TrEMBL record:
Keywords: Cell membrane, Membrane, Transmembrane, Transmembrane helix. This is PST family polysaccharide transporter. Belongs to the polysaccharide synthase family. It holds the Pfam family Polysacc_synt_3. CDD domains: MATE_tuaB_like. It comes from Yoonia maricola. It is a multi-pass membrane protein. It is found in: Cell membrane.
């Protein structure tokens, strides 16, 4: 085994500049990817039937569970480690590759049993094909973690956009036009993941190694097992509603629900997932500095409230136009579930930041208990709501999401000693702003409908009005948005100014 080689312990720059700068890169890349996903969804929704989306959605829930189990927390352990040696990297690579092969074989062998559990006999070949994803993802897991640890978020953002555009989008749309049906979605996923894995491996090629050392393995598992428990709980919370809908309401209903959820997820992931991936490695580097953790938590939750609560107002009011214009009239049953789910967009996004704080502070088993509690609430809420149809499931899931976030804040306060009063105050502040924006949008929509404006023109008008108003307030009077608005606007203007100077020089 090669001698240990220490890795950088993390950033030393202030969180205000470095973290928000990295977040802006991930936000920009995530925004581009979200726009691409919405455009691709628009196209695919007119080429494929809801039942085909439902079948693939059911298969992906199985893949997601096995993928979480196969990670066994290796990647977060690499990101969180105060001192990272080459033995850790080599052992992590070997472990993720072996677990990828093992989980692929397990899922392939159980595919028929899983299809019977879902009461979907046509599901078997999709699950068997998706089993390849475990091997592909396992190969790139450690290299992705190394890039996150090194805060190479600009490259990660660009890689994700490229792989989605030339992987999933190009393949899925082309095959759908050629009549491949649900298989176009499956093959698109495989090509996208292959591209992103190749990018990760190439970008981190100088640091990668294959090998195994038991002491390195046990040190990673000690932390990683708690992460895995957390991720399994998160998986159950994110997919229990899919299983209940698929089993009791059928693949067509799951198709409607999964597409509504995909639209919702673009808003939540744009801030939540991107921010979590930036925040976790940054916080891990200051895990013993409680004052900085406190400031990071307050600023993160304030940024989420600033962006997500006003956006929620737009999405709820414009939901019928968003669904019918983007996806077509056959997707009408997805409107009400979308409105209910998107009403708690802030809580769905913010709880990811709370989880990042718990993990970065080493409270992985507390985070796991929290996620399992969330999963239990989603299961109960979805099951109790399913006799009422899709909207009943959406209500149950939304209530569980709100309770989960509030529980997370209590855990952070009790086990880490971080106050939550400031972030709660900012949430109330932006809730008032969101209600004002929602009322204005509702009145504007009612007037536009009364004069005969509808469909795509109505949607464009509402979105343009919202963006212009929000951007005007943001840049002209950022103090309305508090300290977080001032900091974020300064970062945006600073980066735009740098770009303009570069272009002038060229």
């Amino acid at each position: 085994m090669t001698a240990p080689k220490d890795k950088p312990e993390g950033p030393s720059k202030p969180l205000t500049g470095s973290t928000i700068g990295h977040f802006l890169w991930m936000f920009g890349g995530g925004g581009a990817e979200s726009i691409l996903k919405i455009v691709v969804l628009l196209v695919l929704a007119r080429l494929l039937m809801p039942v085909e989306f439902g079948l693939v959605g059911a298969a992906l829930t199985v893949v997601a569970l096995a993928e979480v189990a196969g990670r066994i927390g290796v990647a977060p352990s690499i990101i969180q480690a105060k001192i990272l040696t080459r033995d850790h990297i080599a052992t992590g690579m070997t472990t993720t590759l072996m677990m990828g092969v093992l989980m692929a074989a397990l899922v392939f062998g159980l595919s028929e049993l899983i299809a019977r559990l879902y009461r979907m006999p046509d599901l078997t070949p999709f699950i068997q094909t998706f089993a390849l994803l475990f091997i592909i993802k396992g190969a790139g897991m450690v290299s992705e973690a190394l890039m996150q640890r090194a805060l190479r978020f600009r490259e990660i953002a660009l890689m994700r956009v490229f792989s989605y555009l030339f992987g999933y989008a190009a393949v899925a749309v082309t095959l759908s036009v050629l009549g491949f049906g649900a298989w176009s979605l499956v093959l698109g996923q495989l090509v996208q993941q292959t591209l992103i894995t190749c990018f990760y491996l190439y970008s981190a090629r100088d640091d990668l190694a294959i090998g195994f050392r038991w002491s390195s393995f046990t040190s990673m598992i000690e932390f990683g097992f708690g992460i895995t428990l957390t991720q399994i709980g998160n998986y159950l919370a994110q997919n229990a509603d899919y299983f209940i809908i698929g089993r009791w309401l059928g693949p067509e209903a799951l198709g409607y629900y999964s597409r509504a959820y995909l639209l919702l997820r673009q808003g939540a992931q744009l801030v939540g997932k991107m921010g979590d991936q930036v925040l976790f490695p940054t916080l891990a580097s200051i895990q013993d500095d409680k004052p900085r953790l406190q400031r990071a938590l307050n600023r993160a939750l304030s940024l989420v409230a600033m962006t997500q609560i006003p956006l929620t107002a737009l999405l709820v009011v414009a939901a019928p136009e968003i669904i019918l214009v983007l996806m077509g009239p056959q997707w009408g049953p997805a409107i009400l579930p979308f409105q209910i789910l998107v009403a708690v967009l802030f809580f769905r996004t913010a709880y990811q930041f709370v989880g990042a704080i718990l993990r970065a502070a080493g409270r992985v088993y507390i985070a796991a208990l929290w996620q399992w509690s969330y999963a239990a609430m989603v299961v109960v809420g979805s099951y109790l709501g399913q006799p009422l149809g899709l909207w009943g499931v959406a209500v149950g899931v939304s209530v569980a999401t709100v309770i989960c976030h509030l529980m997370g804040l209590l855990l952070v306060r009790h086990f880490i000693g971080l106050g939550t009063g400031a972030s709660f105050s900012r949430m109330l502040h932006y809730s008032v702003l969101g209600m004002m924006i929602g009322a204005a949008l509702f009145a504007a929509k009612a007037w536009l409908l009364s004069v005969g404006v509808g469909g795509a023109l109505l949607l464009v008008t509402l979105v343009a009005g919202f963006v212009a108003t929000y951007a005007g307030f943001f840049f002209a009077t950022p103090r309305i948005f508090g300290e977080e608005g001032t900091v974020l606007s300064e970062q945006v203007v600073k980066r735009l100014f740098k770009r303009s100077r570069r272009s002038d020089k060229s």
